[in-house]
UniProtKB/TrEMBL annotation:
Keywords: Coiled coil. InterPro entries: NFACT_RNA-bd. Residues 343-424 form the NFACT RNA-binding domain. It comes from Halarcobacter mediterraneus. Residues 188-235, 277-311 form a coiled coil. This is NFACT RNA-binding domain-containing protein.
Length: 442
């Protein structure tokens, strides 16, 4: 962050703030400080891209931070009175000096925010500039400037340059704009990353689709195997042990040669061919269903990409494709539906007929079922143990139903009812009553 901006921010803080009401870490390198009059400011001390910003929406805490740094941060600064705020040593360093009362004595603490390239850090100091804690601890093997608890902090080596000074008319508004720019960049990068992830799955499915055997080829293969098996069976009395080829006539009177497997007897080999013929026949019968399911999966992924492109926040993207936890156990078994989590509720989506059937057959009576009104659509189930759902959950589930059932924007009506009111007719075709209808715009 530029020196002149830090100077403007310090002047703004000097004028506006007197007390730190609340302070905590909300991300690996970001702290939030709520000053008096609910004036909340974010300090992101990420190396290489440090920022100070404000935003209108409340902070989303990624996780609870309970490291020694966080304990000291809150102990020393919550409900503390600000004694002084300054640019320290004419460098890109902000010092916030506070007084807080303990049960024993008055404590003076300095919050040092260093926006200085490789030295970027948040350091908590006592009144003698002895380190109490730091966001990043640095030993003597990593830098000549050591940052360790209990030692006096060395000064940052001064740079031989005169910083350019500019004037910002409305620094508070500028801090909001900084957040908007950061959020837009992060949002676009997040979209790109997630779309790449989905595209990888999409290409894999499309490749599977193109390599699917054709029904007529499978039927031809099945008939040929049946004929070979029958011809071997009819000529068992002529086949000698370890014979490699059977020469005979097919049912049209044409002379044919059939390769035999000398590892097995002729009767065993004939049975093997019958089994292969049966499998090919069954595969030919199922190939249409398999192809349809794959095509619907492809449609789902294309709609997922389209919905990610429309997302206006990172939280919206994370709803569709949440990050996997580091300790999350990988499972090879694929689930028979897509799942989402919203405000403590698990929302299940069927992306093809097979998955819709699975959801119908495996949902519970108190679960809620959603479907586009008077139109083919994905089935959506919200797992539930009560008689009702919160309105925001109903709206979210209905929106998912519409988003993954159509490729066009507009207003859609979605019917919903408890699963106990849905009667399966055939496959995924159902009758349902009573029900309610909600209008959704996508």
């Amino acid at each position: 962050m530029k020196y002149f901006l830090l100077k403007e921010i310090v002047n703004y803080l000097k004028e506006k703030v007197q007390i730190i009401k609340r302070i905590k870490r909300i991300d690996n390198n970001t702290i939030i400080i709520e000053f008096n009059d609910k004036n909340t400011i974010y300090f992101d001390l990420t190396k290489g891209r440090s920022f100070i910003y404000k935003k209108n929406s409340p902070a989303n805490t990624k996780k609870d931070f309970n490291a020694p740094f966080d304990v000291v941060l809150q102990k020393r600064f919550i409900n503390s009175k600000i004694e002084n705020i300054e640019i320290y040593n004419e460098d890109k360093v902000i010092n916030i000096r506070v007084n807080s009362s303990s049960s024993y004595k008055k404590l003076t603490t300095i919050l040092q925010l260093e926006f200085t390239g490789k030295h970027t850090n948040i350091i908590i100091l006592d009144e003698n500039r002895v380190i109490l804690e730091a966001l990043r601890h640095i030993d003597e093997f990593s830098s000549s400037r050591v940052v360790k608890v209990g030692i006096k902090l060395d000064e940052i080596p001064k740079q031989n340059f005169t910083p350019k000074l500019e004037k910002v008319e409305d620094i508070e508004n500028y801090l909001y704009k900084i957040y908007e720019e950061i959020e837009y960049t992060n949002l676009e990068n997040h979209k790109k990353q997630k779309i790449t992830q989905v595209n990888k799955k999409l290409k894999k499915l499309e490749k599977t689709l193109t390599t699917l055997p054709k029904k007529e080829n499978l039927e031809k293969e099945s008939n040929e195997l049946y004929e070979k098996a029958n011809l071997i069976l009819n000529n068992l009395h002529l086949i000698k042990p370890y014979q490699e080829v059977l020469e005979t006539y097919d049912y049209n009177g044409n002379k044919v040669q059939i390769d035999l497997d000398t590892r097995y007897s002729a009767s065993t080999f004939s049975n093997t061919l019958f089994k292969r013929a049966k499998r090919s026949k069954q595969k030919a019968l199922n190939i249409k269903i398999e192809k349809s399911n794959l095509e619907e999966k492809v449609d789902f992924l294309k709609r997922l990409i389209n919905n990610i492109k429309k997302c206006k926040t990172i939280d919206e993207i994370e709803f569709f494709l949440p990050k996997k936890q580091k300790n999350q156990i990988k499972t090879k078994k694929s689930q028979n539906y897509e799942s989402f989590f919203y405000n403590g509720y698990k929302i299940l989506l069927g992306t093809n007929e097979r998955e819709n059937i699975y959801l119908l057959e495996n949902s519970k009576a108190n679960d809620f079922w959603f479907h586009l009104k008077d139109a083919p659509s994905s089935h959506v189930i919200v797992q539930n143990s009560k008689k009702s759902l919160p309105e925001d959950v109903i709206e979210k589930a209905a929106k998912i139903c519409a988003q993954f059932s159509t490729d066009f924007q507009g207003n859609y009506f979605v019917d919903y009812t408890q699963r106990r009111n849905v009667k399966i007719q055939h496959g995924a075709n159902v009758l349902y009553n009573p029900y309610k209808t909600i209008s959704i715009k996508i």
